[in-house]
């Protein structure tokens, strides 16, 4: 594995995946209160603070970007959002990683490569090249009902570089009420020490 070179970030757009069922959480994760605002708004603001030109929120609800392929998971959200993006690089964020920081995102987007970029061992967040080949891959996979529709499969297919996160807790997913409570406790400790 080659070590990606870091440079000044090129302009990028962002897609926030906020359309999951939240079945393990028992309530809509995107609407959970994080630091005084709905989580989707917090994550959108985080992407903007990190330098995103535009942020497209993938969510099957009024005022958001709906999936064009029904019940097809995160790739459907990426496909719908990517059709709106104008920049050559696109940051893809999951709604359920509220411990990410601006510096975490900037670490990904400043990695100088034509490939996708992610943190080692984590498919999301990632940076995708906004190329015809990525669009074609998504169209093909989403058009076939029994294809592998994972983000990891997408990254493997298009080529990916990985980098090490500065702190692993930032990549923790909040899928259950216990995860959410732990994330809130970690955030509270960070604010006390920061």
TrEMBL record:
<dbReference type="InterPro" id="IPR025877">
    <property type="entry name" value="MobA-like_NTP_Trfase"/>
</dbReference>
<keyword id="KW-0547">Nucleotide-binding</keyword>
<dbReference type="Pfam" id="PF12804">
    <property type="entry name" value="NTP_transf_3"/>
</dbReference>
<keyword id="KW-0501">Molybdenum cofactor biosynthesis</keyword>
<keyword id="KW-0479">Metal-binding</keyword>
<keyword id="KW-0808">Transferase</keyword>
<keyword id="KW-0460">Magnesium</keyword>
<keyword id="KW-0342">GTP-binding</keyword>
<dbReference type="GO" id="GO:0061603">
    <property type="term" value="F:molybdenum cofactor guanylyltransferase activity"/>
</dbReference>
<feature type="domain" description="MobA-like NTP transferase">
    <location>
        <begin position="14"/>
        <end position="132"/>
    </location>
</feature>
<dbReference type="InterPro" id="IPR013482">
    <property type="entry name" value="Molybde_CF_guanTrfase"/>
</dbReference>
<dbReference type="InterPro" id="IPR029044">
    <property type="entry name" value="Nucleotide-diphossugar_trans"/>
</dbReference>
<protein>
    <submittedName>
        <fullName>Molybdenum cofactor guanylyltransferase</fullName>
        <ecNumber>2.7.7.77</ecNumber>
    </submittedName>
</protein>
<keyword id="KW-0548">Nucleotidyltransferase</keyword>
<keyword id="KW-0963">Cytoplasm</keyword>
């Amino acid at each position: 594995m080659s070590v990606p070179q870091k440079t000044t970030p090129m302009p990028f757009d962002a897609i926030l995946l906020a359309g999951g069922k939240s079945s393990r959480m028992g309530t809509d994760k995107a609407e959970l209160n994080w630091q005084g605002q709905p989580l989707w708004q917090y994550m959108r603001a985080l992407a903007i603070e990190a330098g995103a030109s535009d942020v497209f929120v993938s969510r099957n609800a009024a005022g958001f970007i709906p999936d064009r392929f029904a019940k097809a998971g995160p790739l459907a959200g990426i496909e719908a959002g990517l059709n709106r993006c104008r920049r050559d690089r696109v940051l893809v964020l999951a709604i359920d990683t509220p411990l990410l920081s601006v510096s975490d995102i900037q670490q990904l987007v400043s990695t100088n490569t034509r490939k996708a970029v992610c943190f080692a061992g984590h498919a999301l967040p990632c940076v995708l090249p906004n190329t015809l080949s990525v669009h074609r891959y998504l169209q093909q996979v989403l058009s076939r009902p029994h294809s592998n529709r994972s983000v990891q499969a997408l990254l493997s297919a298009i080529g990916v570089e990985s980098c090490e996160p500065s702190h692993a807790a930032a990549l923790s997913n909040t899928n259950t009420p216990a995860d959410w409570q732990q994330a809130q406790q970690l955030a509270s400790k960070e604010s006390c020490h920061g």
